[in-house]
Amino acid sequence: MTINGLTYAKPPENNIFEERFRQYIQMQDTIIKMLKDMHYTIRDVNYLVSDPSNPTYSYVFEAVHDEKLEDGSEKVITLLLPIPDRNISFVVSGIRWIPVFQITDLPIFKKSIRFANSDAMEVVLQNTYGLLILDSELAYYKVNKEFWPVFLLMVEIEKSYETVLEKLNVEYTIEAEKKDVGINIPICDSAYINIKTQNLKILHMLSPFIHQTKELEMFEEKIAEYATVEETFGKILDSWRTENKNKNVIKATSIVDNVMVPNGLFEGPFRAIDVLYYVLTTNYSLEQRDINDINMRRVRLGEWMLYKLSQQHKKNILEDTTNVFSNAVLDVLATDQRRILDDSVNPLGELCMMSRIIYNGLGGINKESCNPTLRNLHDSYYGVIDPIDTPTGDAIGICQHIVPETILINGKLKNIVEV
Amino acid sequence: MADVPILSIASQQIPSLANDDCTRIEMACNQLRQSIALVNPEVPLYKSGYESTYTEYCSSLVKAKDDGYCNYDLGYNGVWVISYKNGSGEVIDTSLKSYLDFDKTLISHIQYNKPIKKGQVLACTRNINADTGELMLGKNMLIGYLPAYGWNYEDAIVVSESAAKKLAYQCVEQNRLELEDEVLYSLIDEAQYKPMPINGEKVQKGQILFKVSKMMSDNISALIPCYEPVLSPSDGKFYAKVMVKRESVPHATMSKWLKEILTEQTKQERILVEALTDIINAPHEIERYTYTKNKKKIKAKTGVIDYSIVSEKSLMVGSKLANRHGNKGVVSRIIPDEEMPLLPDGRRLEILFNPLGVISRMNIGQIFEAHVTWAADNLVRNNTHLTDAEFAKKCITFINILDNTPNKVYTQMCVNHIKEHPETLNDIRENGLQIVQPPFFSATCNMVLQAMEYAGVSNYETVLLANGEKRECCVGKMYILRLQHEPDHKIFGRSVGIYGKHEQAPSGSDAHRFGEMEMWSLFAYESWNTIREFHSVKADNPEERNRFFKHLYDQQESIYIPNSLDTVTLETFKTYLKGCGLKVHFNK
Predict the structure, then answer these.
(1) Is residue A346 part of a domain?
(2) How many CB atoms within 10 Å of residue B330?
(3) Nearest CA in chain A to B60
(4) If you average pLDDT over residues A52-76, what whole number do you get?
(5) pTM above 0.80?
(6) What is the four-CA torsion angle of B184, B190, B196, B201, rounded to 10 degrees?
(7) Domain covering B9-51+138-166+315-480 in this structure, CATH number
């Protein structure tokens, strides 16, 4: 120990990193409990990198149902849980200028590669223990070839939707129009959102809680056209349940209670687990991402992938198998566990990853066709987001870094001094 | 300013940030993230004070959560088990990281059955100081801002040979050998069975690592011992890990060797499981660290050998260096130590930057860093003979002059620290005095000048060049980072691709234009043949190109010389002139 070892600055208590670990541990416990309730037992736990282009390192829970199917085969579920201690970035995909709430745990799901023939599927919980810091982002995700707003997926669960409706005192008018094609609603000069009718109803339900701005006046007029009372969120779920009664699907029980509620109305912890429960009981499929991203973003991992692909290709020619890519990916990502660490160059890079906000991604801002005003600094950044630390080039202003001297209060970031 | 903290983790690492231009800080943040782990990294002498604040939250540092002791420490599986007093425990797993990237492996600082205190560093990577938990991204080098006969023109950097060795990093090449029914023959002779080099043995490029038997379907060929050699790709040290799935193979001595490994693996596993059961109750959690779990995943019949060759790579011409203030550049020349400028105290400079790279970029923080470290260096070197009390007084007054923190907080901290730990003074004498300059509370210009006066140092140091000339230049110790970009990784080739229809230049993906600047550089070197090649064969002239491909296809030994220099661009130039109504005629 020397004079040089003196730490001039010490981290504040309950900072974002600590909060994130705490959340993660809660998540892990609740998932195990939830699986038990569904009569599943955990068989296997592994490491995995779920997405090569934007790698998230996760534990893989492989769980088996206690009862076997009529064929004698097993029901298997694989669950991916992100590892908190590395490479967690706040992926906030969305468009700004619309005041919305906060993000808790955001599930994204896709069909598993390994069990392509069976009914099993993977649930990937993407690393968004984050939060919308700025009151100015709306995120929506592409699920089942439809755009779902993020707050539909991330839900605070306190009351059932009926009681919430009573609280809100919202009235709806019935209109017979049923259109699957969404509409483009302009938000500012260049940006617009594509919203399906189904989601518009929900937006309408929430509209009294959205802050009144000039942009939203136009918004609301269009939303009102499509709003109906009968087919609210809960009704849709009920109809879904009746359809799938006869099929071999696990029954959803707790999902009725899930209604999205704007931030600050109810106190208490967020339970994204119930959303996960909902996701588990449905059969969603999501398109796979572009493979070209590998080469662009993570060169070292990409090189390794190509190398493995070429090796695998040689083997497959001999064995006359067809599924070249998926085999190679599994080789790299599943069996070759040590590739996990190839991502960040040094510990500083890892810390920066944990405090990064990215606005592009699924349903987010495009790097090239982004309005320059969106890249500018905003007043609300002060004390929360670093004004200097952004990459030069295309991603300027779209990728940002959080100030570490911040504390989580009700899911929002606040500077220590302000508190 | 800075009543509220507004900086991210990367920009917190920059000392005297307020003296730099924002565009250069932006670059510096990105460069800090790109710096590679060196073989022997150092803590910076000129610090921001935020080096160790948030490192405990990253995965490359593990601290003890409570008092306890180490249960299992054999390092065989890369696993350390620690049980705390409150009944809980911890597993430090390095097996994932070892054998792949030696920079990112956790190095344990635990001793078996010895008590552990709360907050003690259990394991960390090479990037982090085990005592203090500070980031170590680069190295402190003796630099000067001096033009070196054009070798550091346009942000190039001149480096001495000894400095090139100091900034070395470890390169790891990892491979896997899957064993089906093959036999590994001995490298020496049959009596003394040795299928591969020992862990840590030095290996040369092209040396045989394994002798693997060729698989033949005939029965006859099995009698003849013929093998396929696996050669090492580069010079370095050899490391390997064997995972055995089955013991019995046709080769008797090999099966004996496999058996030995298997018994050791099972023995280790038994001890590990016992240690783990004290902490963890869930069986699947324990299984994750065990050998039998990993054994199931191996596809090959007999087993797998994961081997890697570790080599140290020193600086080369073309590798990228940077500063913490956004001053980046590429190494243009590596000069022997004797030719580097000589200081009056007998030392030689290690790195030469161009002074013109500072003025227009407005990153004056680096000049502050150079001046302050040079003053501190001289202060320590000239006063080592003093007694502890006098020496401490000198150091603290020096720190006090440079301290711009509110209410001189940092000097008070230093005074208290020296009282509690008097052994720090010896460390300062050996390794130098480190000075903290927080981003927005750093010293002003007058403070720096005052400190230099106190240390007895002038702004400019007279330096003796190799040819006998004397020059004045700014000298100091700079914290220098070696970045990820290496010339070896940037080599690029394109065999066949799309050509533009108008100018017949390579286009589409992976195409690189050979532009004016590139042409000038070739003019400077008077390399006429390569210019001819670029203008005829490789880009412009389709006839010449086809002729060249045919030359390659026929596998002729002679070097191809293009017949004509007529290019498509020249012809388009002709047509433009004709379009103007001129009569054009070229004399050959």
Answers:
(1) no
(2) 16
(3) A347
(4) 63
(5) no
(6) -170
(7) 2.40.270.10
